[in-house]
Amino acid sequence: MYLNCHTHFSLRYGTLSVEELVGWAQAQGIGSLALTDIHSTSAVYDFVRACRAAGINPVVGMEFRRDDELLYIALARNLQGFHEINAFYSQYAHQGLPFPDLPPYWSQVLVIYTWEKRDRVSLSEQEYLGIRPRQVSQLLRTRYRHRQDRLVVLQPIT
After folding, report:
1. CA 44, CA 13: separation in Å to the nearest integer?
2. Model confidence, pTM
3. Beta-carbon count within 10 A of 85 CB
4. Which CATH number describes the domain made up of 2-153?
5. Of 3, 132, 144, 154, which one has the fewest beta carbons inside 10 Å?
6. Residues sharing a CB contact under 8 Å with residue 17, sequence separation 6 or more, in sequence order
């Protein structure tokens, strides 16, 4: 499963349409796919519809950034989680405030932090560290080498 996919609704980052993303996933035989556009859920309904038509399990969420820094990726576990993500986004976006370094506690949202934040977070049941392939060698020198249940591969598709 790819946990961090963008469409062209991720302005200046994403290049794929919903149809191209889902078509690629179907051609690869991917069973589940997560759409996490940057500060946007505009493509969610088309994404869910396209995934269902292609026999792919859709997962939706959002990527949160401050300037060019990736803060965290939020994945909704269900509709309540989707609401939690959108309410959080709206609260900050409407007030013109920067997103905080860490999100609030969400009961129905999974959160992925970047590997660079590993020393600033104490991972709860719903939090994970995303490791890019080039960072795997760093894992051996950290406390997370024994916490593989809290690690996911972070390989964005844009």
Report:
1. 17
2. 0.92
3. 23
4. 3.20.20.140
5. 132
6. 7, 8
